[in-house]
Amino acid sequence: MNRSILKLAIPNIISNITIPLLGLVDMVLMGHLESASYIGAIALGGTIFSVLYSFFSFLRAGTTGFTAQALGSNDKIETIYSLYRAICIGIPIIILILSLQTPIAKLSNILLDGSEEVKTLAINYFYIRIWAAPPNILLYCLNGWFVGMQNTKIPMFIAILINVMNIIFSIIFVIVLNQNVIGVALGTVLAQYCGLLLAIILLIKNYRSYFVKINKDILFDINKIKRFFKINRDLMIRSFLLIISIAFFTNQSAKLGDNILAVNMILLQSFYIFSYFTDGFAYAGEALVGKFVGSKDKDNLSKAIRLLLLWGFSISIPFTILYAIFPSTFVKIISNNPNILTEVEPYYIYMILIPIITFAAFIWDGIYIGATASKAIRNTMIIASVFIFLPAWYILTPILGNHGLWISFLCFMVARGASMTLMAKRNIMESI
Q: What average pLDDT score do residues 51-64 get?
């Protein structure tokens, strides 16, 4: 079982490492310009897309769960139709996003807090990066399907290409052509199309035998469509609340000033770096749990869950130690702005606590998604965001300021892990 977990997790970890690396490169490129506004701009601009895509990330998670369960039950026809249905939903979503880009930008400008300079730069960033929506949405479908097929190597190759090309393009546009936030956005757009092209090539090369002529009766089977939308509706709510919580954190940071916004976004990079390592095991959980649920193999399901949580805990320990020993080194890599370096010191403790506090939530996410336990994962997110995060923020922030904001965020992550642990027996083990 450990070999199976690592076989799926390691390619995901390798590909995920390139994601925070990209975020770090963007921060470094902006952090070494003359103003802290550039860091704030890509943080707010990135928040717009995080919230926007949170509505549609169910296309990846849902496709993984459906595909893995079809594979576990040896239903070859249903495995490919899981992909067909996801793409059929993805194309109208792409059209909708591009059609509504102006209203989205105007609404974002109203809702986001920050200086006028930061907001203007963020909206400029948005209008360029929005053209990455087509490959982004289609890659949700394709990557979700690859993971469901127990193949994490292809998403690894795609992610590495996207992020390496993104870094190369961003450096060219920002350093060589002096395009600041516009250059970072252009790099993202071009890299996403490179990734989509590679995904299509690898799909055809490796899974040509799965392709069948589309049968409309199977594609639009009313029972399968109902289940697809029921599960994905709950996953969409879960993803939206997660991203809204992070966006809320970002927005509240902006209210505390450009320097605090920059400080919090730099520290949040440590959260993302750890999450991408842990998500390697979460994605392994999606694939394995979905397969064992599909084959109704309770023994292996229980064993996989236990070992996945153990791997998550094991990963958290070295991260906690590294963040405790080298906090200033991490920050200095991203920015040499003296104001930021001075203001960040009181908040190192939160970077140190992040790994041990958050690992359970990440691992359980993968387990619940693989089991398509969408109602339960939705409910745990509602509990954590609405009944823990917001009340904690409301009570603590007026008293403790930015410390209160960080404590509230960590309480949110603890609540996610704890609630999913308590609900697991009923919603995972007793569901098959």
A: 83
